[in-house]
Amino acid sequence: MSKARPLAAAFLALTLGTACSAPALVSIRWRTVEVSPDQRGLITGYALDRCQRVDHAEVVYAETRLVVTLLAKQTKDTCLGRQTPKSLVIPLHEPLAGRVVTDGAK
What we know:
The protein is of the alpha+beta class. The chain has one domain. 16% of the residues lie in helices and 44% in strands. The strands form two sheets. Strands 1, 4, 5 and 7 form a four-stranded mixed β-sheet that branches. Strands 2-3-6 form a three-stranded antiparallel β-sheet, with no helix packed on it. A hairpin with a 3-residue loop joins strand 4 and strand 5. It starts with a helix and ends with a strand.
């Protein structure tokens, strides 16, 4: 086996790994939260510049609280330094049942 083959494979793996890697997610703070009218979700209010978009939300169900974290990633748009208010409905997989909702963003 030639020495070039392992080097080529390593180069290809590094190149594809970099090219195919997903953009980093960052947690963002939400500004408001309320229970949806049907009690099956939370409506979170947040604001982002046009160079970011919410990728998904994570909910941790604890005994006395729910920790909701919004995760955003960069877009290809140019940042303008102006945040636009937005909202996101997050479905709940368990009833709220009097638990406090807290922001998981750090």
